Amino acid sequence: MNGSVWKALRIGDLEARTPIVQGGMGVGISLSGLASAVADTGGIGVIAAAGIGLLEPDGFTDFLGANIRALRREIRRARELTRGILGVNIMVALSNFADMVRTAIEEGIDVIFAGAGLPVNLPEFLKDGVRTKLVPIVSSGRAAALIAKRWLDKYSYRPDAFVVEGPRAGGHLGFRREQLEDPGYALQTLVPEVVEALSPFADGDSPIPVVAGGGVYTGADIREILELGAAGVQMATRFVATDECDADPAFKQCYVAAGKDDLEIIASPVGMPGRAVRNKFLDEVEAGRKAPYSCPYHCIVTCDPEKAPYCISLALLNAQKGRLDKGFAFAGANAPRVESIVSVRSLVESLEEEYRASGT
Question: Is the pTM of this model over 0.85?
Answer without folding.
Answer: yes
